[in-house]
Amino acid sequence: MTISVATLGFPRIGPRRELKFALESFWSGKSDADALSLAAQGLRAAAWARQKALGADIIPSGDFSLYDHVLDTSAMLGAVPARYGWDGGKVRLDTYFAMARGAQGGRGAQDAKGHEGCAHGLDSTAQEMTKWFDTNYHYMVPELVAGQEFALSSGKAVDEFLEAKALGYHTRPVLLGPVTWLTLAKGKDVAPLSLLDSVLPVYEEVLAQLARAGADWVQIDEPCLVLDLDDDQREALKLAYRRLSVNGPKVMLATYFGALGDNVELATDLPVHGLHIDLVRAPEQLDAVWRRARPDLLLSLGVIDGRNVWRADLDALIDRIAPVAAERDLVLAPSCSLLHVPVDLAIEAALDPEVGQWLAFAVQKIGELAVLAQALDQGAGSVAEPLAAARAAVAARRTSPLIHNPAVAARLAAVDAGMTHRASPFADRRAAQQARLGLPSFPTTTIGSFPQTPEVRKARAAHIKGEIDDLAYEQFLRVETAATVEWQEKIGLDVLVHGEFERNDMVQYFGEQLSGFAFTRSAWVQSYGSRCVRPPILYGDVARPKPMTVDWWRYAQSLTGRPMKGMLTGPVTILNWSFVRDDQPRSASCREIALAIRDEVIDLEAAGAAVIQIDEAALREGLPLRRADWQAYLDWAVDCFRLTSSGVRDDTQIHTHMCYSEFNDILPSIGAMDADVISIETARSQMELLDAFADYAYPNEIGPGVYDIHAPRIPAEAEMTELLTLAGKRLPAEQLWVNPDCGLKTRKWEEVRPALIAMVAAAQRMRVRGAYDAA
Ligand code: GLN
Ligand code: ZN
Asked: Is the pLDDT of residue 107 over 70?
């Protein structure tokens, strides 16, 4: 039986983020479209050469993207919203980037958090962006309208196939499948799936062109097959592949990010020629798929983790795959596109070598597949050396003292139910907190960060490079902090923050101070477009060698008589934004982080903090793909938050912040977190999103964001008063706080100053009105 090695997609950004720099140079006008196109060609050629050299038999084309593969698909289909003034024909670069980033001259560039808002009248704003399944990669949400027409509007798929062919690579082109694309789309007055019939002819045309160009196989990605599907989606899949599997190239249908589950029969019955399944997330599905697959269905087994950075246990994989390989032809592949892992471990210089030997990035993962395939094909003896090396690395990791900290294990074992419960119910705590804090009604605060100005960034960069020493940097941060505290006091905010100038990325800030986390210098992963992140690598038991934020808090509190919030990032968010251990459940890692942050909470309280905020920006986005798995996740996530927050006295007020407001599905869990105050994003929805809290009769206090910080726009006092009035119609005034809807770090001081002054004025107006109503 033959075994081949395939990749489903390779990182596009380049080993040294070459794409980012080419894009940004183009966007800023420093280079032209030809230069960008040349850079992109260079990256593609290098990626093909690399994959080939590493031993991949089947290499993809079309997996490259200048911005996002969902956007590429929208461009291919000519699904360009009217506001971009596109008049048909090919979707050119300016239209493509307008869809990605908004049009030039408008509020084009994205800020660090993502997009500028889109509800303020400028009609060339970017398409919405959201997370790709349960990854931290963001895609551009396709927008569809009733009567939407489609036409083949991009030659990308064929062009890149031919480009590879000219270089001597026979590739398997990758397309995002029509059903997943429609499932991810947002329809205005139309159910996206109802447009399938008009979408399919474009796919048929692309496939026909690819066949003419010489493609014998295509890879069509339908990750929606791992979701809970309704009947319409199932019918759509059947219809689509009945049509797309004839005439054109053979179809390798790729599923990933989870188990096919109840869609196994659907998937194996589709008339496609190959089926890729994710055996990292769902190893157990091998049997079910293998049993059901027609003999002529080519199975592609995703056995190497495309979502994480660990070296694989090759011996174990050989044992698992051998019985299947004895029976049928196989393709071995990473579980999903390698887009989600860094490119090459070999260029990483900052890692502890002991940790480094446990890792595999995209390049190394293809190497692992090649070894696996050869071992299965020609016997383990033919690759004895690399197998031995893999074995040694896996064994070393299993027993390394870097990973296993008996003190952490002992503490975890000692966690009891009392540690996840505050001493008293909310009503009692509230009275104690009121007595201690003496806040007015409609208390005002901010979410934590203040503008990260060019000066702040410059000082940080200079400090990292060693151009300024610790003392000078700290002095600089103190001056920034002091000025910010003084200003907040002056404008009359009630609960102050220190401004977070010492933090860049909040997860990195805490990860760097906790043991068990490693940080890299060059292990970049695409987040969206040109934006890349270096997720921390959580490799071992987490402990907190010493307090992390107490000194900064103490300094900030020393500058004011008003309450200074302690500012922490919660365990679930730290977990969800890191590469995490695969040798224990996520929930176990999360509990370790929770214990470490709990210690910090208790130390802040001991230092005198009366208010402590624990941000859980990523709690909701960590929801599993299948609804049946939600509750288990929510249970441990909430439990970890409570473990973090419950070690304090009644009169210490715990805040949390979440950067979104679609809470409807998860309100009981939000309630179960039992934070004294939660701040959420609601400014853009006219407080409608508070309805869920009202219906649920959420008992604790809430700060619905009244200032949308995602846009540079400065809200007027009247507007915020109006929002607060709307909030007051939904929830009792005593429950309400007044705050922006997220941190201010991406904004400019020129925007923040007038906005917060107006916000304080709005709160004061509400108080006066309340007093008047009461009289
Ligand atoms: N405290 C953080 C800040 O203000 C919260 C950011 C977030 O939740 N994304 O920046
Ligand atoms: Zn936020």
From this structure: no
349 burial class (0-12, 13-18, 19+ CB within 10 angstroms)? Answer: exposed
Q: Residue 262 half-sphere exposure, CB side, CA atoms within 13 Å?
A: 9
φ, ψ for residue 354, nearest 5 deg: -65, -45
Distance 11 CA to ligand 1 centre (A): 29
CB 362 within 8 A of CB 12: no
How far, CA to CA in Å, does 6 sit from each of 57, 199, 366, 387? 6, 28, 8, 20
- Fold designation for 442-454+490-507+542-774: TIM Barrel (3.20.20)
The confidence score (pLDDT) of residue 687 equals 87
Q: Which ligand 1 atom sits nearest the alpha carbon of residue 573?
A: 8
Tokens representing residue 623 in the block: 């929801």
Cα–Cα distance, 218 to 210 (Å, whole number): 8
pLDDT at 457 > cutoff 90? yes
Instruction: Give yes or no: 421 in active site.
Output: no
Phi, psi of 439 (to 5 degrees): -80, 150
Exposed, middle or buried, 606 (CB in 10 Å: 0-12/13-18/19+)?
Answer: exposed
- Structure confidence by residue, pLDDT tens digits, 243-262: 999 889 999 999 999 999 99
Report how far residue 403's alpha carbon sits from residue 426's, in angstroms, rounded to the nearest whole number.
38
Across the chain, what does the average pLDDT equal?
A: 95
Mean pLDDT of 335-340: 98
Q: How far apart are the first and last CA of the chain?
A: 87
What's the rounded mean pLDDT across residues 344-350? 95
Whole-angstrom Cα distance, residue 237 to residue 179?
6
Give the model confidence (pLDDT) of 51-70 as tens digits.
999 999 999 999 999 999 99
- The minimum-distance atom of ligand 1 relative to the CA of 447 is 4
**Range 354-369 average pLDDT:** 97
Per-residue tokens: 117: 């808002």
Cβ partners under 8 Å of residue 384, min gap 6: none
pLDDT of 683 reads 76
Please state, in angstroms and rounded to a whole number, the distance separating the CA atoms of residues 276 and 441: 58
pLDDT of residue 659: 87
Distance CA 55, CA 373 (A): 9
Ligand 1 atom nearest the C-alpha of 657 is 8
446 lines ligand 1 (CB under 6 A): no
Amino acid at 134: D
Quote the ligand 2 centre to 577 CA distance (angstroms).
Answer: 14
Tens-digit pLDDT profile for residues 692-719: 999 999 999 999 999 999 888 899 999 9
Q: Which of 239, 280, 285, 240 is nearest to 262 (CA)?
A: 285
DSSP state of 559: T
Give 615 Cα–ligand 2 centroid separation in angstroms: 8
**114 pLDDT above the threshold of 50:** no
Q: Is the shortest distance between the CB of 743 and ligand 1 below 6 Å?
A: yes
Whose C-alpha lies nearest to ligand 1, atom 6? Answer: 743
The residue to mutate among 131, 136, 446, 449, having the most atoms of ligand 1 within 8 angstroms of its beta carbon, is 449
Indicate if the pLDDT at residue 121 is higher than 60: no
Token output for 432: 């104690």
Instruction: Determine the Cα–Cα distance for residues 689 and 700; give it in Å rounded to an integer.
Output: 16
Angle at 155 between CA 149 and CA 158, to 5 degrees: 125
Looking at residue 324, its pLDDT comes to 96
Among all ligands shown, which has an atom nearest to the Cα of 614?
1
Domain span(s) for CATH 3.20.20.210 in the chain: 442-454+490-507+542-774
Judge whether residue 113 has pLDDT over 60: no
